[in-house]
């Protein structure tokens, strides 16, 4: 089974045969019915929006769309068992709300024509409709979207009640691990700015797509890093098509992650691209401060990073209180002010006061360091130069004055 395409991802071209097989598998799929509700399950993921009209509601949508997934392979369960050594525990890369992620390697031995490639295999917990919907949503979106700052979906598996996703392997794992694990070397300022830019480009691509997409689960654990610390967004299980025509928002049940979801979205369920911008602001703040968005072990006034840091973001004298002390000497005052004011804007209570992601990209671009020598986190203790920042990109970001 399997046939090679000719593109760079030649190994990941689904054949008509594969697709027909998947369609057949999908038709007979038993969907467990268990309605999960409320925020705060493992990893703070909330319930799927079961009333959501544009989430792939049934397998019919998927079957129609699957013809568009020209670069995605339909794997058999046996093939994925083979490459993960029957999902051996020492192949585990991590665990999230969806299930466990394993490392694997595909090549000609797995299927004739497959290009040799390390992959990450995510195995859905068999715990209900939510997981199944997220799996479908992910295949639907990632199967069609391609961008350097989105993780590539190599393939999927749908056999009986098994649901798996196969992604390109991201050598350095998640930003969350790099930013918050005490055992890893602190990321340097320039690496943090580079990651912020890459992630912003990924979101901007989604928001500016012909049919705009709202990502809805932007957080450090969903930003994966390749060997060069290039950021790619993963986990499209909660993504939604943006408002269309005259619509100002899409109405959904509240989904996402505590500490990252925009306040108006949590209050009303009204979702816009600006909700993603808020979540981006939270991640930028985490990058700048080295602190988690929510941490109950901190003093009560500091538990919520946004509540604690936001008032200081527009006060030059107070920036020093919030910027990660491990970044000492690596950035210019001006660059830190630009980055902090960008975070401040993204975190505006009023969604309309937040910049567009394309403005965020423009603002971050001048904050990138030009020397390659400073990109490695290991160089953080011996900075070779200090990054500067050109004036705040005006774009559509309203005039903003920092308190002096
Ligand atoms: N493509 C990949 N390459 C390398 N490691 C990966 C890949 N995808 C996931 N991982 C690892 O697996 C971990 C778990 O990922 P997963 O997306 O399942 O959960 P999460 O992001 O931590 O939580 P959530 O379910 O809320 O998204 C990640 O933190 C990362 O370390
Ligand atoms: Mg994730």
From TrEMBL:
GO biological process: defense response
Compartmental location: Cell membrane
Enzyme class: transferase
Location of the region described as Disordered in the Swiss-Prot/TrEMBL record: 37-57
GO cellular component, one term: plasma membrane
Residues where ATP binds: 122
UniProt-listed Enzyme Commission number(s): 2.7.11.1
Pfam families in alphabetical order: PK_Tyr_Ser-Thr
Positions with biased composition (Polar residues): 47-57
Gene Ontology terms for molecular function: ATP binding; protein serine/threonine kinase activity
Keywords: ATP-binding, Cell membrane, Kinase, Membrane, Nucleotide-binding, Plant defense, Serine/threonine-protein kinase, Transferase
Coiled coil location: none
The Protein kinase domain, residue ranges: 87-368
Family: Belongs to the protein kinase superfamily.
Protein name, entry field: non-specific serine/threonine protein kinase
Protein species of origin: Dorcoceras hygrometricum
């Amino acid at each position: 089974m399997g046939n090679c395409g000719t593109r760079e991802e030649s190994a990941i071209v689904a054949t008509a045969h594969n697709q027909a097989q998947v369609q057949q598998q999908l038709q007979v799929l038993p969907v467990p019915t268990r309605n999960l509700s409320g925020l705060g399950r493992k990893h703070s993921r909330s319930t799927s929006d079961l009333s959501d009209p544009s989430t792939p509601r049934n397998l019919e949508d998927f079957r129609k769309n699957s013809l568009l997934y020209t670069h995605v392979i339909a794997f058999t369960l046996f093939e994925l068992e083979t490459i993960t050594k029957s999902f051996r525990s020492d192949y585990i890369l991590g665990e999230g709300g969806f299930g466990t992620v394993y490392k694997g390697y595909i090549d000609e031995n797995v299927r004739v024509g497959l290009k040799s490639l390390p992959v990450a295999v995510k195995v859905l917990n068999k715990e209900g409709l939510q997981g199944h919907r997220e799996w479908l949503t992910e295949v639907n979106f990632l199967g069609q979207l391609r961008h350097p700052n989105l993780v590539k979906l190599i393939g999927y598996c749908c056999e009986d009640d098994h649901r798996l996703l196969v992604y390109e392997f991201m050598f350095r794992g998640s930003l969350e691990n790099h930013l918050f694990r005490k055992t890893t070397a602190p990321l340097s300022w320039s690496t943090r700015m580079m990651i912020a830019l890459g992630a912003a480009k990924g979101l901007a691509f989604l928001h500016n797509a012909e049919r705009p997409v709202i990502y809805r689960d932007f957080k450090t654990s969903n930003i994966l890093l390749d060997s060069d610390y290039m950021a790619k967004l993963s986990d499209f299980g909660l993504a939604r098509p943006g408002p269309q025509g005259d619509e100002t928002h899409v109405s959904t049940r509240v989904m996402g992650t505590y500490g990252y979801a925009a306040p108006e979205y949590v209050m009303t369920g009204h979702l816009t691209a600006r909700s993603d911008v808020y979540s981006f602001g939270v991640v930028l703040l985490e990058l700048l401060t080295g602190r988690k968005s929510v941490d109950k072990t901190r003093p009560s006034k500091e538990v919520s990073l946004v509540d604690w840091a936001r008032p200081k973001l527009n006060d030059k004298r107070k920036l020093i209180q919030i910027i990660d002390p491990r970044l000492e000497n690596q950035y210019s005052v001006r660059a830190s002010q630009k980055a902090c004011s960008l975070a401040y804007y993204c975190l505006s209570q009023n969604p309309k006061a937040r910049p567009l992601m394309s403005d965020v990209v423009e603002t971050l671009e001048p904050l990138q360091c030009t020397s390659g020598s400073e990109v490695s986190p290991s160089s953080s203790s011996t900075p070779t130069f200090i990054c500067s920042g050109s004036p705040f990109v005006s774009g559509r970001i309203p005039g903003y004055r920092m308190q002096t």
